[in-house]
Protein 1
Amino acid sequence: MGGGTKARYIRQIISCEGAEFVCLQEKKSKVLSEAKCFSLWGNNKIGWLHYDGDSGSLLSMWHKESFSYLSHMMGKGFIVVYGKHIKYDISCAVVNVYATCNLREKKMLWEELSSIKVASQEVVWCFCGDFNAIRRRSERVGSRVMYDLSSEINGFNSFIDANFLLDVPLVGKKFTWFNSNGMAKSRLDKVLVTEEWMEKWPTCK
């Protein structure tokens, strides 16, 4: 977001896709102004929340004519925004996630997100962002990890299964992170939704 090229790219995606809610992770700008968010979206009819943590910063933005904000929660590695999709009159929770590389901290994040979801069963849920975790070994190629991958895989899948989440299909490239020489690559970014979300928006991708 700090550079013009990336900002223009994000603005282009928002415009082309007709975005209603956008979640950004690992945002490089430490200071965020209302004018910057307006410029990024290309519209001043938006709401936004910014979390700047040690593990990385998060920015959640929404168009006020599409999504009606009700409340939010923030914690280490996440922003939860509660509101209502205006057109469909559906209560939603959109969770913007940026997890650390530390396995113990990832497990703590999964536990906290699970507790938050259990407390609000009457809404449809979308968890999206950089989970820094994989569901199967084929999702990480060429990367050296300092801990047993089985523990990460089992823990992440348990979080998904326990919360009855569906892994939205990825379009385009198979992996979402590449190192500079392209030899190491992983699928760390995911969108996880409840069945009720998928029933309302069955063509999610």
Note: The radius of gyration is 17 Å.
Protein 2
Amino acid sequence: MGTTLTNQNYIQKEIKSRLKSGNASYRSVQNLLSSSLLYYNMKIKIHRIKILSVVLYGCETWSLTFKEERGVRVFKKIMLRRIFRPKRDEVTGEWRKLHNEELNDLYCSPNIVRVIKLRIMRWAGHVERVGYMKDAYSFFGGET
């Protein structure tokens, strides 16, 4: 599942690759997610485990621009719309896609961009602590 890092921090290709992998992951479980035999909570678990874990792999190294944030948000909304399927309008009887508010009611989870930023900050904390560990190790007579 490797990631691609460059010294210029050109991350657009990596994000695009992650989204393609997430889409391929969705296609591998598409029959399960489109089944009417599974409850929504099971579909959500499959989505989190199978699709989001692939998309968010290595996101700790990303530096998101507004364009990339939007792309990740759009990807997640598309996946949720595929999972929750269109609904029949009660007034007209026609099929329509779910609105964002309806998706948020059905799938209440943190914003995916917020999740990415939290993972970035958590990783930065780990990296910072490693620096302190090296300093403490050399202070007590160890070699760095």
Note: The chain has a mean pLDDT of 83.
Protein 3
Amino acid sequence: MAVNTADTSRQKIRARIRRQRRQLNDSERAACAWQLAMHAGKDRLVQNSQHIAVYLPADGEIDPQPLMQQLWAQGKTLYLPVLVTFPAPRLWFTAYAPGDRLVANRFGIAEPARTHYRRIKPMGLDLVMAPLVAFDLGGDRLGMGGGYYDRTFGFLNKRKYWRKPELMGLAYELQRQKHIQPEPWDVKLSAVATEAAVYHCQ
């Protein structure tokens, strides 16, 4: 069987970056999370959005919770992803506020207890802050490999003009790559926020 060199390269990037970000200590993680919040909280994509999807960190991902505190203080409505597998693996989004009950999904990631009346369709969001493993300045994102965000927001690839929601990746600066070879189904990011800056993608 022929080796898929593109997949191998993506797998190598995933392994290297996941290892590097897990090596950060608690004080480094906390400092980066606060610095990211300072940059992203003032960005025009955030300021122009009311319904914003966020995430709770896992596997060494940068922590958006300092940013979430800012967004709540600004009166934004925040949503967390809920993993569903039927009819196809994808994400739903449920409104989330401090103190709401969380449960662990099958990957051990905390998500809101399923309250259907608080759910929003992906196209009803203004902005999605997405976790990632690696990114480049062209807006290409390498995730964990499950494809949940790409399947959920794949409808954006069919649009030429009106892009809603916008996707903003959240990451450590160490996750930035010179180039990531995209797959046909990948959904591009509009921007990426790190502890160093907010990059608006070309």
Note: The helical segments are 5-22, 26-40, 44-47, 65-73, 148-152.
Protein 4
Amino acid sequence: MKYAITGNLDKPGLREAVAELIRMLERAGAEYIVDGRIASLLGAETQRTLAANSRDVQQMVTEAGILVAYGGDGTILNAARLVGSKGTPILGVNLGKLGFLAEFGPEEMEKAINDIDANRYMVEERLVLSARSTGIGDSVFYAVNDVVVDKSRSSRVIDVEMHINGHFAVTYRGDGVIVSTPTGSTAYALSNGGPIVIPTSNVIGITPISPHTLNGRPLIVPDASLIRLIVREGAEEVLFSADGQREGLLKPPAEVLVQKAPYVLRLVKRIDRSYFDVLRAKLFWGQDARAIRE
């Protein structure tokens, strides 16, 4: 197994965490390569030993058996975009705050490496969305969390007309619409009243942003659905984004098509932790705030 190490260069503690991981891998006799940008941050002695192990990020994805990504969820989303359809499993190490996608902390990496060596781990497949619009040419946006169509800088509400598999479903009046994967159900969609969805579910969530009608409710559809969102008027421009990292401005009338991507995201997961454990740890799910104060 060859490990490829990358991460968010702006995260405090990255240099120390990577240096410690390299020491662990060398003690274990494991093969590894390192993002050249991170290698340049390490000490002179470490840099000399890494001379033959440094790669640019695209080379790393091609060579890696597992891509180790240090940072927060944004770092994992970026790593997922780098991997794309290659299918390289991503092991997320949390240097951020919430860290829903990052499975491990830096202090857990020695156990993680030992478990991987002993085949005591699993690779979980997650739905990815693809989205396109004639307003941005032939570009296809891919999203692990969500595709969002919103009113951009306008103060006016917009009407987003939604069709599912060619059938008109509903018009949401408000600030826009979030189309989310199960993974993204705990991201932007959750803050707008969407449901928590088990990440391995074969569904897509549709959540209105600040709806101006009480009957504008979130919707769950099968992941085989083709979702067509149309903004005919109401704003000078519409913002179309994927995972908050890729975006484009559309001029109404604007149309966005969203569907399941032809590949999945593969995440390295431990076998002794369930998704419900994560919810309780990250969101304090089910805890009574009154009991916490006591």
Note: The mean pLDDT is 90.
